[in-house]
UniProtKB/TrEMBL annotation:
Organism whose genome encodes this protein: Streptomyces olivaceiscleroticus
Taxonomy, superkingdom: Bacteria
Family as reported in the entry's similarity comment: Belongs to the short-chain dehydrogenases/reductases (SDR) family.
Protein name, UniProt field: SDR family NAD(P)-dependent oxidoreductase
Amino acid sequence: MTETIALHGKKALVTGASRGIGRAIALDYARAGADVALLARTEELLDVLASEIRALGRIALAVPCDVTHPEQITEAVDTVLEEFDVVDVVTNNAGGNGRPRHFLDLPRAAWDEAMRLNLYSAADLCRAMGPHLTARGQGAVLNVASFAGQGGVPLLSPYAAAKAGLISLTQSLAAEWAHTGVRVNALVPGWVATDLTTPLSTDAQLSAGLLQSVPAGRWAAPEDLTGAAVYLASDAARMVTGACLTVDGGMSALRGGTTMLQLSRAAGAAAAEDTGHAARP
């Protein structure tokens, strides 16, 4: 089993690789033995990451690409296949939640932007890589979705709708491509501390409010997601397709909201007072 949860000899492609979750996944793909093609808009950050991956003894290919432009995706895929010859793992990580807005105040352009970045880019990359993967009869696609795609999120309706679409796309392609040997799965994070969420995670009052819905009681780091990503990309998950692997510190366990969590913490504090032991925060 320890041998199959590895990516030795595989070639991986990661979008949104220059920072945050994508950067962490790309590094751990390399640590697991894969060569990695890195796609993102910021060439300087890609070059830094590529150097780190090469220092691990793996091949890194930095390919500047704005995934909201389908023609750039096509060009990037051509570049990667020319360099790598094959791609075994495709990871659609690029995304962003934009500025929180009430739905009625949301310009159509902002809605379209969220869809292009979080949903259409993944569909376009799957469209570009699909012929290669299905012709080879093997490969793994990993779509980085969000807990927002599994329920309503006020003020982030376009992001939530796009991620819900990404989850549906994952399941549809998994069913459509399963007979070819290509697997398609989704990684579903909860609250993750990245550059994009810094305004939330660094606001003490706001962060505390958000963490009321997280039984683990903390923000995830990007590195908390990489073990799940490596597993889904590896041969250890060879019969896993159409799955949504949730990494959210227990958020999805609270289907009824935060009330029971608050009650359980209050009960724990009361019990601690009775016994003289400190309650765990």
